[in-house]
Design a protein that fits this description.
Layout (H helix, E strand, L loop, with lengths): L1 H17 L8 E3 L5 E3 L7 E7 L4 H16 L3 E7 L5 H10 L6 E3 L2 H7 L7 E5 L5 E6 L4 H11 L1
Length: about 150
């Protein structure tokens, strides 16, 4: 019995070792059909923000993400819309919020590519070398983002 447990644990360990590390070089397809690789943005900070139209803190942070996109050429933001029923409605909503960064129509598989998303909003920030720098759960502000980027630069 002990030998069987050891084999099962070893097989499970090998299976997990074969999986790519979340965020290692994720690929996201935006709502326009463009494929984005984390590696394509070396030299820039990459912010991946998971949000939903029904989530008040998510909606509060969108103007700050828009402002960061406008003011910082060294930053690429991606908004990953989660838990929606109608993709057209999500895109119309984003347009109405003047979102100026790519929107990804996401799901649990999309989240798994990036990392653990336990609640919305969740934001992942990658440094210019493509390494995960911050995972932030809850509303994030422009001031928090700017402070982090300036401190880590």
């Amino acid at each position: 019995m002990r030998r069987g447990l050891f084999r099962a644990a070893f097989a499970l360990l090998l299976a997990f070792a074969a999986l790519p590390a979340a965020g290692a070089d994720f690929r996201l397809t935006d709502s326009d059909g463009k494929l984005h690789h984390l590696g394509d943005y070396r030299g820039k900070w990459v912010i991946v923000n998971f949000w939903a139209t029904w989530c008040p803190p998510c909606l509060e942070e969108i103007p700050d993400l828009v402002a960061v996109t406008d003011s910082r050429k060294d930053v690429q933001v991606f908004g990953v819309a989660m838990e929606f029923q109608d993709s057209k409605q999500v895109l119309q909503f984003a347009e109405g919020m003047f979102v100026n960064y790519p929107i990804v129509l996401g799901d649990r598989n999309t989240a798994d590519l990036i990392g653990k998303v336990q609640g919305l909003p969740t934001t992942f920030i990658y440094d210019p070398q493509g390494k995960l720098s911050v995972r932030h759960v809850g509303k994030i502000t422009r001031k928090q983002i700017e402070r982090l980027l300036d401190r880590k630069s």
